[in-house]
Specification:
alpha+beta, 7 strands, single chain, 29% helix, globular, 4-stranded antiparallel beta sheet, 3-stranded mixed beta sheet, 100 residues, 38% strand, Immunoglobulin-like
């Protein structure tokens, strides 16, 4: 009985970990590099006209810098799973939303 319960707990834990992340692509469609900050994970620099695949936990924040200050670009949600996020367009939209 204990083995069955432990197996069930491990199965649920494994399923829970997979359900708690999103795999998606970050695209830069401009001729300039775009530096990003993903706390506790990495600080990617998206090269011009590039696509980078990421697998991040749901709730993970991604930041961009504008005029020397860090601003939230997006918080990872299940909606991003399997999507292509066009970073340059998202930054433009966030600058407008934040009245920067």
């Amino acid at each position: 009985m204990r083995i069955l319960i432990i197996g069930l707990i491990l199965s649920l834990a494994t399923f829970g970990l997979n359900a708690q992340s999103a795999s998606f692509k970050l695209k830069n469609n401009t001729a300039k590099s775009i530096p990003l900050k993903i706390p506790g994970v990495m600080n990617p620099n998206l090269s011009p006209f590039s696509t980078s695949g990421v697998d991040l936990k749901i709730g993970q924040k991604i930041f961009f810098k504008y005029k020397g200050k860090k601003h939230l670009l997006l918080m990872v949600s299940k909606e991003q799973d399997g999507q292509h996020v066009i970073v340059n367009k998202l930054i433009k939209r966030r600058i407008k939303e934040l009245n920067l």
